[in-house]
Specification:
With about 170 residues, the protein is of the alpha/beta class. It has eight helices and seven strands; from the N terminus they run αααβαβαββαβαβαβ. The protein has a five-stranded parallel beta sheet, with helices on both faces. Strand 5, helix 7 and strand 6 form a beta-alpha-beta unit. The longest helix has 19 residues.
């Protein structure tokens, strides 16, 4: 009876990885050659999407929002409707309801420049108005827009100052 000699499992793995690498290099030869020369490959340009992705504001936590607000480095903007703002809002916040944000040109007062740090908020984690407002503000040319996802409920629960009435 003839006995077959088997290849060691690690040798098999190494062989599969080597073959995969050779196939990958062969299929992407142009892309790799252009990258080696420091050129932009036509293949890479074709593979890119036609439109850039929509800019999305980054989230900011309670401690960061409080610190930026207290130091005067940021403006807090309430995305909730005007009635909710009048009932209660974060002290010093501006009201910019999502429903009117697109219609206002510019959406914020003149003293809020495109370089001002803006933190949008609404009714907490289940409310997405602040994220939508943040996207609108970015499209309007504001460059440093963040979203405080915990919103008014997290601020209030932490014992931080709130106010009522119009701003």
């Amino acid at each position: 009876m003839m006995r077959m000699r088997s290849i060691h499992p690690l040798s098999e793995i190494a062989l599969v990885v080597l073959l995969a690498a050779l196939i990958g290099v062969a299929r992407n030869k142009t892309l790799l050659t252009d990258a080696w020369r420091g050129e932009i490959s036509k293949a890479a340009v074709v593979a890119q999407p036609a439109q850039a992705a929509e800019a999305v504001p980054m989230p900011v936590g309670l401690a960061q929002a409080k610190e930026l607000h207290d130091s005067g480095q940021a403006v807090l903007v309430d995305a909730r409707n005007a009635d909710s703002f009048v009932k209660e809002h974060i002290s010093g916040a501006l009201s910019l309801p999502l429903a009117v944000a697109d219609r206002k040109k510019p959406p914020l007062p003149k003293n809020v420049t495109p370089d001002t740090i803006i933190i949008a908020y609404c009714n907490g984690f289940s409310c997405h108005d602040s994220m939508e407002l943040g996207k609108i503000l970015i499209k309007a040319g504001y460059r440093q827009v963040f979203v405080f996802e915990g919103g008014l409920p997290e601020w209030r629960d932490a014992g931080y100052p709130t106010a009522g009435g119009a701003s």
